[in-house]
Each structure stands twice: as C-alpha cells, then as structure tokens.
Amino acid sequence: MARRRHRTRLPAAVVAAVAVMSTLAATGSTATVAAAAGPGPDRPTIRYTEYGIPHIIASDWEGLGTGYGYAAAKDNICTLADTYLMANAQRSRHLGPDGRASPGQNQNTTTNLNSDLYFQRIKDDRVVERLLDKPAPDGPEPEVREAIRGYVQGYNRYLAETGVNGITDPACRGADWVRPITEMDVYRHAHAEIIMGSADALLDGQVNAAPPGASAAAVPSAPPSARQASSPAKTDAKTDAKSASRTDAKSAARTAERIREAMAVSREQGMGSNALAVGSQGVSGGTSMLLANPHFPWQGKNRMWQSQLTIPGKVNVSGASLLGFPAVNIGYNENVAWSHTVATVAPFGLFDVQVDPLNPTTYLVDGAWERMTSQRVAVDVLKPDGSLTQVARTLWSTRYGPVTTSMQGVPLPWVVSAHAVRDVNMHNLRALNSWFRLDQAEDVHDVVDILETTQGVPFFNTVASDRKGNALYADIQAVPNVTDEHARSCLTLTGQLLFNQSPRLPNVPPISILDGKRSACDWPDDPNAVAPGLLDPHKQPRLIRSDFVGNANDSAWLANPAQPLAFPRVMGDTAAPRSLRTQELILTAQNRINGTDGLPGKGFTPQTMGKLLFADNSRAADLALNATVTMCRNVPFGLVLVDGNLVNVSEACPVLAAWTSHDYTTDSRGSWLFANYWSFLSNGQGVEKLPWRVPFDPKDPVHTPNSLDTGSSAVRDALARAVLALRTAGIPLNAPLSDVQKVSRGGEQIPIHGSLGQLGVLNVITPGQVDGKPDIVFGSSFVQQVRFTAAGPPQALSALAYSQSADPSSPHHADQTRLFSAGGWVTERFTEEQIAVSPELRIKVLN
Fold it and tell me: What is the SS3 assignment for 49-90?
C-alpha cells in the first residue's frame, strides 16, 4: 500500500483568528491577557491556560519543537536532565555506581553502573547514529528532524535564561550534570524509550554475562571431531538418553515457571493501560468517543506531560506525551482520537546456542563452530572521595545478539549453552515517524495505514475513534517474526513452555527461545514487513466496529466479545481467561450501551464515561464479596489459625458487609481490607487460579470463572492474613481509603481514589514507596476522554493525575492532583477562540 502524506487543515475561521500581537513579539515577554486572538505563528508562541497547559503554535516544525522544548524544560528540567544522563551512560560518573536507575517500564530496576554499561555499549556500537544516517522509514522523516532540532533550541534557551543555579527544583539546582543538550541526546532518549520493553527483563543479564571461567575461555578450540569421546554401549546410551531427557524436561519446566512468575510480577507492578473506543452505535449525542487511561509511573522518565501543538494548516493536536518527545503520543486532532495500551507481545526473543565446553565463547551453528565477538565497555564512575575511576567489562555477542545470563532476575546459566538476545526494537527509530504521523491522521483507516507503513509502535496496542463514527482496535507494531509454524519448528523445550504459556499467568507475553544451532531458526525476513525480522503487519490483529472496542492489557482476542480475533501466537493467547480488569472494561461498555448500568439513558456521554471510570468499581468485589462475608460469618468462633497466629476475623465481617458499593472512592470503608484480602488470595496468579466453583468457559469468557469456593481454606486464610496485616500496621479494618492511599505534595497529603488492577478496578492505582516514604508509584496518569460530533470541534476532558510539573515550587505541581483526587476533569481548550478566552491565559513569545 502506498504511503500517504497526512495534512490536517484548520478551518479558515480559526486560521484567520491568528493575529499578531506586536508588543509581545518585540519583547519576548510573558503577559496575561483577558481575551485576545492568539499571536502570529511566525515566532514560536506558548499560550498557557488553566493548570499550566501549554498551547504551542508556530509556523513550522522547528518552531513547534522550540516551543515544546522550552515549555517542557520549564516544568520538568530536572527529570529531563536526569533522563539524558541515563541515555548517555553517565549516571555513575555524576551520581555514583550504586544508585538506582529506571531504564525500562518499571521503576528503579537496576543500578546506575549496570544501566551505564548497557547504554554505553549502544553508544559504542553507534546504533542510534547508524539509524539517523538512514532515510525514512528507517530513519526519522524530515518533520521529525526539524521538530527535534527546535526542541534542543527551546530546552537550551530555557536553561540559558534560568541558569543551573537559578533552577527552582531542588532536585537538580546547581548540579553539574545539568547542561545544554544536543540533538543526539534527544535521539538517544527516544531510542531508550523505544527499547524499554526489553530493558527490565534483560539488561542486568547482558552486562553481567561472563563465560564460565577465564581459564576455560582462554583454551583454544579444537575441532569437534578431535574432542568426541568413544561411544558407550547402546543400552547405556539409551538409559543415559532417557535420564538426560527427564532431567532436561524438569529443568526446563522449573526455568519456565520461574520466568513466568517473575514476568507476571513485573507486569502486575509495572506499566499498563485501559483504552475504550466507542463508535456511532454506542454514543449518545455524538458520533464517537474515546477513553484514554494509561497507567504509567508517577515519577521519573516515563512521566507524561500535556500540551497542544499547532502549525496552522498542517497539524493541530492535543494530548500528552512522554517527557522529551516533541509530539503527542496519546491524544486527538480535529478528526481522530487515539490511545495506546501495553500489549501482550514480548519485544524480544532468545536463542539457545550450544557452546564448546573447552572454549565457551565458541558456539555451534549449522554444524560449524563460530566465535562470539567481545567488546570492552568502559564507563566513568564517581568514587566516594569525589574522584573518578573507570569500570570496564567485556561483553559478549553472537550472530543473534548479546549474550545474557538472566531474564527478569531468573538465572540462565552459561554452561552447556548460552542465551543470546534479539531485540525487535534495537534498530527502531520508526516510532518517531509513527507518532508524528498519528498526530495528523484523518480517520481510523488512516491510523491503520500509518501503523502498517511505519511498523514503529513498540509493544503497544492502539485504540482509536474518529469523527465518522468508527471505533478501532489495532495491535499493529514491531513484532518478532515468529509465526506459529516457525515456533513449532524451532522452539527449545523451555521455549515451548514459555511460548505456549502452560500453565498460564496473567498478562505474561509469549516469550520465544529458539534453537540457535540452526541458522534457519533466526527470525526470517518477511517481504511485507518494514524491517528485517519483523512479522508481516497484515497478519497482526485489527478490528473496526460501530459499537465499541477496547483493551486492558490482555491480548487482542476479546477487543469486542461479539467478534473474537485470531492472530499468531507470538502476539498473545486466545480462548483463555481474561483479567478482571478486562471483564470490567467490557461489562462497563456493554451495560452503558444497553442502558443497564443504572445510569439514565443509553450510550456514552462525557458525563457517563467520566462517572463510570471514577466510580472505581471492583469486579473482584462484584464476584466474591457476598460469598466472602458469608464465609466470614461462618468461621467457628471467628478464629483462624494462620502462619502460627490465631486471628479473630469476626470484626471483619460487618465491615465487609457494609461495603455494598464495591468501590475504591476515597470515602469507601472496607475497600482497603478487601484489597489486602484479595492480594493474599490471588498471590500474583491469574484469576482462573483462584478457588472458583464455576471454572473458565471460553464460550462465556466475560462471566467466567465465578462463584468463589468459600469452603477452600485458602479463602479463609487470606482473610485472616489481611486482618492480621492491617492490625499489625495499626490500620482500622474500616479505615476510609483516604486515610491509607494518598500522595505527598509539598507536605500536603492528597488522598487518591482507585486501586490495583488485579481487583478489576479500571482506575488503576499502585501504592508504594518513593525515597522511603509512602507514595503512588504507578497508575492512572494522563486520563482523557474525547467526543466527536458531526460538526464542530472535538470536545475533550482530561486529568493529569500527578500534574504538569515535578518541581515542588511550581504552581502546577499538585493542582491537577487535587482535581483528580476530587474526581474532577479539566475542560480542554482546543480552538483559538477557546484558548483566547481562558481567564488564566498567559502568553510567551520566543524570539
């Protein structure tokens, strides 16, 4: 399919409303105006409205990037500067080797030193430089290069105006690691974000991989025939083979189980998302709607930041992006709204290579021995006395990619064989092109075309709606070309267990471990794919409907249960249990469209969509609360012996019985007790592993499994453990959620509604600790709902849960957090007329 150029045209009236404000342009100052048309776009101009949201207008992409870079630095320069340290492998030089780094989807998953060694290797290999040397689609398109050129100018301008010592955020005020940036810094950061789906699982294993003993590695390799021992008797050989086979099977099963469990925990505690697109048959008073609800970190490099970006006649897009991306990743323009959710695709695969026991840096491919390549990677490290030293390691690679000795912390010993990593996104800067073009999409068919022709989206689903009344689900992205046939031919024993998910754990992607002894088992090139080793995008699932589609981090199978999807196994499972959050999303959509949810009328409106998300209903409570209360009341004498403790659970019964709303709003009582109980009961397992009387039925996947088996001792024991945990922590069993789930902002404790995804709550909130203090670490971040009508501008409501700025001195450090706490929404301003009449309008023209 030929690739189209996408240009969004602003209405003539809006373009005409853009008038020059000569005084501001001459001074380059910031001014407050009560009501005025916007300034001319010949100079990048930032219009700030309520909650510090910048509306950036310019005449070209470079100017747009300049405005974005200036405004982003003003709000979050410390977070951005820290991110550039990571991408440039300089955290150990400035912050010491033992600090924690967040290179992947989760928070603080490795040390500064390991992070630096990982990114220094990428720098030494000139991965990003080689991608920049390529034309589009492999390299950035011209508009991307122009916007990033401008972004650097804007960032550096803000830093020059402020000075390092004038930064108001104490996190980096006066720090020697805050410096002007280059375009390469921005591209390195972008690349680091694109590959982060592999980093958590494999980074430590790659930088710590070493052959089993330097002396062994130094022994020259002899021809294989010279090292073969004489064959034992046939009967002994058969016995040995059977014994070895049993041992190998047990070892493979143990390894696969440990990896699955570790990946399940990582996915449960890491990034996720919900997205719901509603078409013309599912809305009331409009043509379509979209709900975007990403669950991203509340701290660090993966914070989202909200803006509107406008070049009259070319692009007009509003939404949010990961900090440092001068584009909108999740948002809307005049005709299309879209969001992303974390997909059930592993953006990497492993290859099991047989090594020479006398020379373990030599491995076998197609009957011939090949030598691994080695490279010395060195980084500067700050010593306790303030001086610098250098730490160097020798890292190893095969034809398939770098050697790793662990996955998600599970050891993969380098003994008889070694494991090599191939990362589907290591040579991907195409994602930048994907997002710039999505910002200019015209309808959902255009979105599909963009996803297919760039194939740059990394480990994300895309959910979209358009003005024409269409709702789109698409899992079209960069995927390893491991077809079902290729998997059957090439998976190792451990690989079969991981890839086929037996037993299944929630949201764990199919991970391939292929036989590296055969070159034919490498990912084959597909002529329909954009880059080598990628799965044909036309084989990847998509669905366009007029009622609804959605995703809550399960596979594509039930984007809409009325039309189940089929796809290659590498992209996820089918006919398997859905998470409680997926069930909740589907039921919420169905019941609202049918008018059976207790709210007035049928179909979604902005009021009902916002009310249903912030109702914070728990699907787990819907399924199990009543049975739990009955079980609690029937415990003999109310006493349960668990973990050596005799626990009286009788006090819990009336607390749970009174929690009839099943919600996680801030004033709910009993919800925190139920959350602890459910966490002990599920213990990180999939919903189908809980004790249900009615098992999962693929013919009724939204309503099964159900009917909790309260005769199971696991149910009783989980409740006792929850009661004991709350009493030990000094928390009353009926404590309101506002007392126990809150975030600190400048000494203010702000209660946060929502709860864990495993409870089947859409508004996911994950409490944890930051710097040893209770805080929110993951959860609803940029929440946005958009409605299209047949005519007129899109109507959008949003809430950036942690606010625009990480700087505690900023007036926009906690304002949207308070709004989110109260269940409120920002009414977005999209047209020039709407921006001009903002009572809080401030204008900054960049000369």
Answer: EHHHEEEEECCCHHHHHHHHHHHHHHHHHHHHHHHHHHHCCC
